[in-house]
Amino acid sequence: MKAVALLSSGIDSPVAIYLMLRKGLEITPLNFRQSPKKESKVMELYEILRRYGKLNEPIFVDAYEEQGPVFSKLAELGKVKWTCLFCKWTMVRKACEMGHQIGAKAIVTGDSLGQVASQTLDNLAIISSASDLPILRPLIGMDKEETVRIAKEIGTFDVSIKPEEPCPFVPKYSIVRGSPGEFLRIKEGLVREGVLR
User: Is 0.85 surpassed by the pTM of this model?
Assistant: First the structure.
């Protein structure tokens, strides 16, 4: 069975991919490119992960092109706190689009419940609305120590912790428990402005 997996240069998503490869899924990684350094780390992680199962070549999407206009418009509308939520929503939506193109049956993410602002139950529900494919979250009940232990065992940890630039889009404060109604209103505004399809 095929799946599209969000792959970043961090610790969590490579572990999520490893766990799903171990279950026999054929995975196509999708990365939102922010810098050459992060892209290089993603390729290193890919080379390690492909030892563990059927892992296709990663697909790279330019974050500045795909998401930049959305984040700029959020700031313009005074809704900058919603940036992280829309970031993950647009990633999942793109993964879903790719999934339909390649015949994938699921999306895989490295979400762990309540770990950061985009991973509270309220926000995960909003993010899930971006996909009509099932979203598999193999790390959902793990704490960071468990994820780090697996990352060390499979050889991805040392790559993931290499220095890199911080995300250029992260706002000072993020919405922790987003309201679905307000999310929809903001989303409709972004569609009207032409920055979101």
Answer: yes
